[in-house]
Amino acid sequence: MTKRPSILDALKDRAHEKAVILCMGNIRKCDGGIGVKVGQMIDGKVIIPVINCGQSPHNYINPIKQKQPRTVIIVDAVDMKLSPGAVRVISPKDIKDSTFEGGGTSLRTFADIVAAETDAEVVIIAVQPKRVSFGMELSDEAQSSADKIAAQLMEAFPKHAS
Questions:
Q1: What residues does 72 pair with on adjacent strands?
Q2: Bridge partners (DSSP) listed for residue 23
């Protein structure tokens, strides 16, 4: 079995580009809030902008455009039918046009809008949720993934160059 590339491997060609990290999700729906939790963990600790969009990412189109990114990295929960906590770096075209939150712009549609409005490449750091019921705590699997994602983003985009 071949080893799946890490987030660092997937982002290595983008580490010196003008990038923005968008952290999405609903923190009141357990693992559905993983993007926001990662955003809280890395905000101020990476050299590129972190925008915590919560469950209203469409409200952030103009601030994203103002950053003039070449790469937009979205962190969110995505049902990929994998084991809870599984992490994949995927393209928007690799996901179905749906979200856990419902009512509002889907992740796929939002990613397509961001790409069209910014002319940036959009990549998604997707985490398989274990549960998206009401609650504030991440599952153990999602928390472990959030910790790993945060560490790898801080390594890929360090605040202070060594």
A1: 20, 122
A2: 52, 75
Q: In the numeric block, which tokens belong to residue 123?
A: 């990549």
Domain membership of residue 2 (yes or no) is no
The reply to whether 126 falls in a domain is yes
pLDDT confidence of residue 101: 47
**Token digits of residue 117:** 């409005």
Q: Residue 16, exposed/middle/buried by CB under 10 A (0-12, 13-18, 19+)?
A: exposed
Nearest to 54 by CA among 104, 88, 91: 104
Q: What is the CATH number of the domain that holds 58?
A: 3.40.50.1450
Over the chain (162 residues), what is each successive 10-residue block's mean pLDDT? 66 78 93 96 95 90 94 94 95 74 71 95 95 90 97 90 52
What are the Cα distances from residue 113, in Å, to 39, 70, 116? 21, 14, 5
Q: What is the amino acid identity at position 92?
A: P
Going by C-alpha positions, the residue among 101, 102, 100, 98 that lies closest to residue 111 is 98
